[in-house]
Amino acid sequence: MEFSSVIWNPYFKIDITVIEKVQRRFTKAIFPKLTYPVRLSRLGLQTLEMRRTLADLTTCYKLMSSLIDIDCTDFFTMSTVTHTRGNSRKLLKHNIVNFRDANTFHNRVINTWNKLPESIVLALSISCFKRRYLHLCVMLLMIIFSLISFFYFFIFLFTCVLFACIIVLCLSGF
Question: In this structure, are residues 2 and 52 in contact, taking their beta carbons and an 8 Å threshold?
């Protein structure tokens, strides 16, 4: 399902959903009562979309670090802008004429690569690059989960206060 995903990576939401359903069904056969994210966590897996992104970024890292016997200038142009956020190995994004070209590897990976912090793009090895990237993903998921938890907490708190006000108003005979 992820073999050569750098080349055939799906870009329509329906295709991504259909491919992800295969993994959903398989994990559900193992843990039928758990939610999909919990099943993935228990099995030590990521979503297929996340694994395809990691494959793209790993290939980009290999090209940029000359670990593949292909000249990276055939795919990428280094950005000369140095005063922006992100990393020192930013790639230049070219204007894309059609939708198909926008989703080829060398165009698809640029935005994600440019958002990576310096510590990831300057990793000394592929395993270090992957470990740091996955750590970043986990940290971002924890932040998102925390924000969602706070959001639900405030909704619960607001509901309790509203309910208490209604009770006070009813008891006071209003």
Answer: yes
- Of residues 136, 118, 2, the one with CA closest to residue 59: 2
Please choose, from the candidates 76, 106, 101, 108, the residue with its C-alpha nearest in 3D space to the C-alpha of residue 89. 76
Residue found by looking up tokens 């398989």 in the block: 26
Q: How far apart are the first and last CA of the chain?
A: 64
pLDDT per residue as tens digits for the range 23-71: 999 999 999 999 998 898 889 888 888 899 999 999 999 999 989 888 8
CB 64 within 8 A of CB 121: yes
- How far apart CA 8 and CA 48 sit, in angstroms, is 13
Query: Is pTM, for the whole model, over 0.70?
Result: yes
